[in-house]
Amino acid sequence: MQTPSCVLISILLMIADGFTVHGPSGLVVVSLGTSVVLPCYVDKSLPMEGLEVEWRRTDSETLVHLYQDGESQPEAQQQDYQDRAHFFTDQIQHGNFSLRLDNLRAEDEGKYTCKVYSQQDSGDTEVQITVDNVERLLVSGSSRSISASVGEDVTLNCSVDSHIKPEHIEEVSWKKTDEDVEIVVLLYQDNEAFPDSSNERYRDRVEFFTDEIPKGNFSLRLKSVRTEDKGVYMCQVFAGRLSANTTVVLERLGFSALQIMVLILSIAASGSALLLCCLIYCRTQNDSFLRLHLSLVFCPNMILFFAFVFWGVSEGSVNETVSCSALYFLRPLLLLWAAPYINKFTGKIQTWIQEYSYVAEYVVFSLVAYSALFKTAWQKILNYAGFERVVIIVLFSIMFLCCLCKIIYLLVTEIGKKSGRIIEIFGLVSDMIIEILPTLQFMILFYTFASGAGGFIIIVILPVFMMMTNDRWFYRCYRVGCSDSAISTVMIIFTLVMNAVMIGVYIMTLEKTTDPIGWACVLVFLQILGTVMKFTDTTNVFLRLSLGFHRYVLMYVFGSVGVVFLSSAALITELILKTVNGDRTVADLRFIVFPVECVFAVSVLISGLFASQITNCLKSCKDSVKSRRERRSQQKKMKEMKPGDQEDLEMMSPGETQPDSVMSQT
């Protein structure tokens, strides 16, 4: 009986001892505007039934916060502490009754009492808050949204309303915050602005008002507002342990002058293409026939060239603008070569169009595209080791020299009308350059963007690629008796498969660039244009396919009217939707422009190489439709004849002829 009695006595003693409320070990020093936790806890868990905790100001008995009946009672708080004083509710069952006081004010300084009631016992502790002499950091901006038209300059306000001197402000950052990832607009740090810290879309378009910074004015000037600039901007200021921020909403209203110009030019391009096409094919051929065709080739494409230039100034990226503008500036060269009326030109003009027009487009466009790609790759090249960097720069330089050599040769021979042995040697070198140019481009891409894989590509894949693009082994097919049709079919299938592989290779290679799909579209177009050039080269002694090349009106109309119309529609749609929604629906117009151009080039190539098969197929379809119509017409006549006439017709032998009376009745 002694052991149970001892246990009972121990329990009674523990109950009699009650509990102790603990608080902070000393003074709590805080800064204005910050949050503070006032400690209050017991050394053991208390039963929740009947538990009550109250925080009060010791000097005035003002109720700061109350916990009662198993929950906080915010309605019992003094009004000054509503939404500022909070319990850690999930910790109360563990004996933690600390209080968090937010947005500290000067009048919050003083003593606070935490009193705990549990059944018949109670305990309390006292906490004293003192505020240091650091001023509260206040940052103010615009109370209203800011509206601006595209192309205008706008000011985003941000002022530091404080006695803190500007030299004590450690950092001021402007960020665009309405996207999944914050975009750095401009940074001010250690008494200096850092324009290089700006995101690419804001670089060279944002600046501080330098003369106003000593007055605490960190407003931002945003120049040449674009549609994607619409959104929420945050100005955040850091000074010591303090930080504060303000937001500014930028709205955009109406079209800018450049956007209106893009709309007008896009509509004019598609409208002029349709109008010229109607004038050509709805009128008889006369003296103005050739002039109308030349107008159809040049006018819509030049108009779209200027439309993409204005689009780039107002909305588009540099790479997108350069690629699309260069394409439409050079498109007339490919259209002239694909035109069915090429035989209407005479002499050297016809020879130049047949042999050099699309070659000039290929070389000039390669020079422009790889110059822009070199600018994009420059930052990546700087991170390479010295040897690799030199190799890449040398490769790019060789490719630029190759393109320039071919351009100079065309200018000297076709425009300068120069000739001679030296010119012939130079022409031979330029022809060799054209042969190696696709391989050189392939090597540059891999060595520049595939980094470690560059050496493997050069050693293993490059020789294979050079062998597969060599047309000498196709020439062997002629010597074993293969027909032109069989050889062209095999070559087309092989080329399409190889280009499909190249598309995947380009995308994987360029995945580390800022716009890999856009660049892949451009380079695939170059690959296809190089294929067209190889298959239709009249000077190639190994390929006879170009001798029977045929140009169809339908393909020409698709290239001169359809492609222009699709690009104009895409440009207009993108501009309108971006103006309305503030975001682009298509990240890069190269996704539309270059695939459509690739379809045109491939369709011209296939239709030209398989002209006889297409003609026979069309003729067969026409004969089939004609015979079907004749059978239907005969069946209809049989149904319309009288029963007696049908019997007489059936009784007649095949060699007999019907009387005139019967013929007249039928």
Tell me the radius of gyration. Answer: 41 Å
Beta-strand content: 15-25%
Widest beta sheet: strand line-up: 2-11-10-5-6-7
CATH-scheme architecture of one domain: Sandwich
- How many E-type strands? 22
Work out the helicity level.
40-55%
* Class by SSE composition: alpha+beta
Uncertain residue segments: 1-16, 452-456, 653-666
Q: So what's the overall shape?
A: elongated
Please, what is the CATH homologous superfamily of one domain? Immunoglobulins
- Classified by CATH, the class of one domain is Mainly Beta
How would a textbook summarize the main sheet?
Answer: 6 strands, mixed
| CATH-defined topology of one domain | Immunoglobulin-like
Average residue pLDDT: 76
What does this structure look like?
This protein has 666 residues and is an alpha+beta fold. Among the domains are: 114 residues, Sandwich (Immunoglobulin-like); 114 residues, Immunoglobulins (Immunoglobulin-like, Sandwich). It is built from 17 helices and 22 strands. Helix 3 packs antiparallel against helix 4, helix 6 runs antiparallel to helix 7 and helix 13 packs antiparallel against helix 14. The protein is elongated. 29% of the residues are buried. The N terminus and C terminus are likely disordered.
